[in-house]
Design goal:
mainly alpha, Growth Hormone, Chain: A, globular, transmembrane helix, MFS_trans_sf, transmembrane, transport
């Protein structure tokens, strides 16, 4: 729950301020902004396919750590972004790796809950997981907005900026705040994963039955109906 909370603090904060950076600071239209964030959606689809393919073979610990590291890296790239640099230097890699944390943590977390929770508790556990992600979104965007406004007011007070026109440092400061959540998330995810998920192993594996017996459904499908002697006698008498 804590890992999902911090991941959404970092990911949604990056997403929010990346859009505002492109539209308000760079002056791009919504269409041009979407085009620069399009790799995020492509990467998200690939991540979901990848998780579905490897979740039965890779321990959940590795997926969580890799995911949180990817989102933190995206925040760091936009915290040091240079407006005059080419898109492929900061914008493209940031959009590619940002969504890794959300996809890996969400998929692994929901499967982990389905594995450890009792059948009658799975709906409640899933609701708590979803609630933590929404709370993480609210807290992350709120805290980074406070940072953004504080830097903007400081720049306006010193005469190096305007309150109505935030400077580049304001957007960078907001991304540094998102990166801070990522840095809280990455060590905590690593420590919590080692402490609590080390014995979990693969969450998507299929376990065989204890005695290696086949299911009743498989047995029914494999059964063949033997011919009845009485039926053969009736058929012979009817022909005669």
């Amino acid at each position: 729950m804590a890992i999902a909370f911090l991941t959404w603090c970092s990911f949604l904060s990056w997403n929010f301020w990346a859009q505002l950076y492109y539209q308000n600071y760079m002056g791009y239209s919504p269409v041009r902004t979407v085009l620069r964030l399009l790799p995020m959606f492509v990467s998200g689809v690939i991540c979901n396919i990848l998780v579905a393919a490897v979740i039965g073979y890779v321990p959940v610990l590795y997926l969580i750590v890799i995911g949180t590291a990817g989102t933190s890296l995206a925040c760091l790239l936009f915290a040091v972004i240079q407006p005059d640099a080419v898109y492929w230097a900061f914008g493209f890699p940031g959009a590619v790796v940002a969504v890794i944390g959300a996809d890996f943590v969400f998929a692994s977390g929901t499967l982990f809950i389905a594995k450890v929770a009792e059948p009658h508790e799975q709906s409640l556990a899933g609701a708590l997981f979803q609630t933590m992600t929404q709370l993480g979104t609210s807290l992350g965007v709120t805290v980074t907005t406070v940072i953004f406004n504080s830097v903007t007011q400081q720049k306006a007070a010193t005469g190096s900026g305007s309150e109505a026109l935030p400077t580049l440092e304001s957007y960078k400061a907001a991304q540094w705040g998102a990166f801070g959540f990522g840095m809280l998330d990455l060590p905590s995810a690593t420590l919590l994963a080692i402490a609590f998920f080390r014995g979990v192993g693969v969450v998507g594996e299929r376990k065989a039955s204890a005695h290696g017996d086949e299911s009743e459904q498989d047995k029914d499908q494999e059964r063949t109906v033997a011919p009845s002697p009485d039926l053969d006698e009736k058929l012979a008498s009817s022909r005669s």
